Amino acid sequence: MTESRLRSFVALADTGSVRAAAGRLYVTESAVSAAVAALARDLGVQLVQRIGRGVELTPAGLAYEEYARQVLGLLEQGRAAARGEADPARGPLRLAAVTTAADQVLPELLAGFRARFPDVDLSLEVGPSRHVWRRLADHDADLVLGGRPPAELTSSVLATRANDLVVVAAPKVAESFVLGTTPWVMREPGSGTRATAEAYLADQDATPPQLVLGSNGAVIAGAAAGLGAALVSRDAIPAELSAGRLVIIDSPGTPLHRPWHATSGAAPTATTRLFVDHLLEAPGWTRI
C-alpha cells in the first residue's frame, strides 16, 4: 500500500480516466493501471470498474477514497511539519481560501509575506467554502482563510478579522427595493456567501427571484449593472460605493457580522505559525 499506489488511485478517482490520471502524474497508463490493481489486491476488493471508455469507483472504492486522501494529506503535512520545524522561513505552506477572501483579504498579505520570506514554498488554492474545508479535513491545506469552520471539523482557529455583509444594489434598484420581490444576484451553490444569503432570506421569510452568477466579482458587477440586490462584504465594494454604482440598502437584520477566520489543523506547522504572525501585523486581525 505504497504512496505511489494511493496517488494513482486518487488521480483515477478525480479524473475518471486512466489516460488522464497518467497525464496528471506524468507516468504511463500501464503504470496507473498496475498501481491500482496492486492496491486492490492488497485490500482484497475491487476498487474501480469500467464504464464506457472511462472508469468509476465501486462502492468499496468510494468508501476507501476518503481514507486514501487523508493518508496522502497526512504524508504531505508530515513533510511540511518536518521541513518547517527545521527552518520555518524555508518550509512549505499550503494555503486555501474562499473566493471572497482571496479577492479582498489575501493579495496584500501574500505580497508582504513573499517580500519578507521569499524562500517559503507557498501554494494557494481558491474555491467555494465546502471545497476549502474539505481540503483542511483531508490534510491537503495547512491554513484556510474563510468563514467559521464547520463544527464537525477538527481544527484550530488562529486569528479572526471583522467582516460585515451588507445588502447592496444599483441606485435605481435600491429606490424601489422590496425584500420579497426585488430580484437577488447570488453566488453559486457551495459558496459560504450563498449559504448565508439563503439563510438570511429564509429568516426574513422572503422568496425573491434569484439570478446565479459564478464569482464574487460577477455578483458585484451584476448588482452594479442593475440585475438585482446582493449580499456582499462591505470590504469588497469601496470603489463601487465611492463611484455611486452601488448603494447600501437598510434591509432588516443587516449588516450581518461574519468575521474571517484563519484556521489550521489541530497542530499548525512552524511555517503556518510564521504566516499567522505576519497576518496579525495587518490591520483588523486578532489572535485567538
Automatic annotation (TrEMBL):
Residues 1-58 form the HTH lysR-type domain. The keyword Acetylation does not apply. It comes from Actinomadura barringtoniae. Keywords: DNA-binding, Transcription, Transcription regulation. It comes from the Bacteria. The lineage of its organism: Bacteria, Bacillati, Actinomycetota, Actinomycetes, Streptosporangiales. InterPro entries: LysR_HTH_N (IPR000847), LysR_subst-bd (IPR005119), WH-like_DNA-bd_sf (IPR036388), WH_DNA-bd_sf (IPR036390). Belongs to the LysR transcriptional regulatory family. This is LysR family transcriptional regulator. PANTHER family: HTH-TYPE TRANSCRIPTIONAL REGULATOR, HTH-TYPE TRANSCRIPTIONAL REGULATOR CYSL. One of its GO terms (molecular function) is DNA-binding transcription factor activity. Pfam families: HTH_1 (PF00126), LysR_substrate (PF03466).
